[in-house]
Amino acid sequence: MPLKRSLKLSEADASSSTHAIPDAPVEHTHAHPAFQHHFDDMEQQFEASHLGMWVFLVTEVMFFGGLFAAYTIYRTLYPDAFADTSRHMDVILGGFNTAVLIGSSLTMALAVHAAQTNARKLLPWFLIGTIVLGTAFLVVKAFEYTHKWHEHLVPGPYFQYEGPYAAQAQILFSFYFIMTGMHAIHMIIGIGLLFYLVWQARRQAYSSEYFTPVEMVGLYWHFVDIVWIFLFPLLYLIGQHSLGGH
């Protein structure tokens, strides 16, 4: 009898102890330092970042789309004036900058690939290469702006244009400086982001497990490059073709 009673007591104690200790919450084991607790896993975090970046790029498309639409309207209204003013655009420098940006898209794509494949030694160099090419673009653009300033082709009180289309020419150059200026601002922002990525890459922050910032900046950089691919023919080439037709 005492033995049976002790067995019953031990079973009761085990049962009560089982109910007394609640199940511990499930925690993410070996979570990456960049993992945010409100996501289920790193894949979901990446997909959320990806979606957010594309939503942002859609707003950028709407912004530049408005500028392109306004440019198209005025070019339709004053085709001869816009064709005449195109002779002041430096096609050689514009073409050089186009090649530079295409090259920067390549180095940016290689940087993303390096991050995805754990090529940590190559990643900073590809990012630095993108910075160098982006900076070269801005330097060339600064030379173009300086040349326009000396020719008094900057819209405003000192604007001077020889020919019958002075008023309309000021409209075109307004579009030129607004559109290329906004593009340059986006380039400067992109270069700033690239410097941050270089700093983080040198700290070994990116790997095949976590490369989200590199890919998001890559999407932004490719978008900025695509905007220039549209700007170059509209501002530099179409007018040249019109003049050739005459």
Key traits:
246 residues; 7 helices; mainly alpha; Four Helix Bundle (Hemerythrin (Met), subunit A); disordered N terminus
Mean pLDDT: 83
Specify the structural class.
Answer: mainly alpha
Characterize the biggest β-sheet.
none
Overall structural domain count: 1
CATH architecture: Up-down Bundle
Q: What is the N-to-C order of secondary-structure elements (H for helix, E for strand)?
A: HHHHHHH
Uncertain residue segments: 1-12, 14-29
| C-alpha Rg (nearest Å) | 29 Å
Q: Classify the helix fraction into a percent range.
A: over 70%
CATH class term:
Mainly Alpha
Alpha plus pi helix count: 7
Describe it.
The N and C termini lie far apart (118 Å). By secondary structure, this protein is mainly α. It is built from 7 helices and no strands.
Brief summary:
The protein has 246 residues and is mostly helical.
Describe the secondary structure blueprint for this structure.
Blueprint (H helix, E strand, L loop, with lengths): L1 H19 L21 H36 L1 H7 L5 H26 L6 H28 L15 H37 L9 H34 L1
